[in-house]
Write a structure and sequence with these properties.
The chain has two domains: 153 residues, no CATH class; 165 residues, no CATH class. The protein is built from 15 helices and no strands.
């Protein structure tokens, strides 16, 4: 009985070691689930997983790979394929078997997805201590969409965890202005990297930027822009070197898909596809999710605003 009471007290007022053990356990479980999903499913969800990332990466590494129209027209950034090519080269030194170097790629992507679990843990801890950290972090560990897409070789799979991290950092800005500006600089750096990876999330990036600069507006905006300029400038330079003109992966992508309508050749979903599909897929589960969404929105409106920005962007622009 005394031992049980001691456990309950340690859970209610955990020390740093207890929190670290719980966090590590959640991260390890999440990592195992994401790798298991890839090993068991063994198939791609979307052709872009192969033709927009793995194939160009393989071509960088070996000189061989399928070239799609996006790469012939030069509307995709080489940033993510170059990173994947580096991972392939490292694991390819162990074995040239595709099973080995692809396992390496999936393991790295699965590891990057753990940022969402970390953010969930820290947010829950801020509001409800270790119990809140376990509930929120644990939900991120087992949530089906996060498990299914965690190790997918898509720009979205890399950008989403970074988006969650940026939102978390913007949510808890330090009170001391010197520390706040350092935090805002790092937020800008992350937002700039997300823009290079997935500029389609620009509206959500703006929401986070506005939240981070809600006080001391002029000074913080200058710091945030300085941070964002580093990855954005590097991305523009990369496009200039690899594609021919600065920021070509952005402006030419918009021109080809929106103005010329190239993406429409592959089918167009109705404008409200995302919310309607969500209701269709979730069924009655949408009711408790909406209830928790409303409750969460009152405490952390920034997260809901980011989600709404993403939904709005991809609902108004049909694909």
């Amino acid at each position: 009985m005394t031992h049980e009471v001691g456990l309950m007290r340690s859970w209610a007022t955990p020390d740093a070691r207890t929190r670290s053990v719980v966090l590590f356990s959640l991260l390890l479980t999440a990592y195992a689930l994401r790798l298991t999903e890839v090993a068991v499913m063994g198939s791609t969800h979307q052709p872009d997983e192969v033709f927009q990332t793995l194939e160009p990466a393989h071509r960088l590494w070996t000189g061989q790979g399928v070239v799609t129209w996006e790469w012939r027209d030069g509307i995709r950034s080489w940033l993510l394929p170059a990173f994947i090519a580096g991972v392939m080269k490292v694991f390819g030194a162990i074995s040239v078997s595709p099973r080995v170097y692809l396992a390496g790629v999936y393991s790295v992507f699965a590891a990057s997805s753990l940022l969402i679990v970390y953010v969930g843990f820290r947010v829950g801890e801020r509001f409800q201590g270790l119990s809140g950290a376990f509930v929120v972090g644990g939900s991120c560990v087992v949530w089906p969409d996060l498990v299914y897409f965690g190790a997918r070789t898509l720009t979205e799979a890399v950008a989403a965890p970074l988006l969650a991290l940026a939102a978390y950092l913007a949510l808890f800005i330090p009170s001391a202005e010197s520390e706040a500006r350092r935090r805002v600089f790092w937020i800008g750096l992350i937002l700039g990297l997300i823009f290079v990876l997935r500029f389609h999330l620009s509206l959500a990036l703006l929401v986070i930027a506005v939240s981070a600069c809600r006080t001391h507006v002029r000074q913080r905006w200058l710091v945030l822009i300085a941070g964002a300029a580093i990855p954005v400038g590097a991305g523009g330079l990369l496009d200039w070197i690899t594609l021919g003109t600065p920021f070509q992966a952005v402006w030419k992508n918009v021109w080809a898909n929106i103005i010329e309508g190239r993406s429409s050749e592959f089918g167009v979903q109705r404008r409200l596809f995302f919310p309607l599909e969500s209701f269709h897929e979730l069924g009655l589960a949408i009711l408790p999710i909406l209830i928790f969404l409303i409750v969460g929105a009152r405490r952390i409106p920034l997260f809901v605003a980011c989600a709404a920005a993403v939904w709005l962007t991809f609902s108004l622009i049909p694909h």
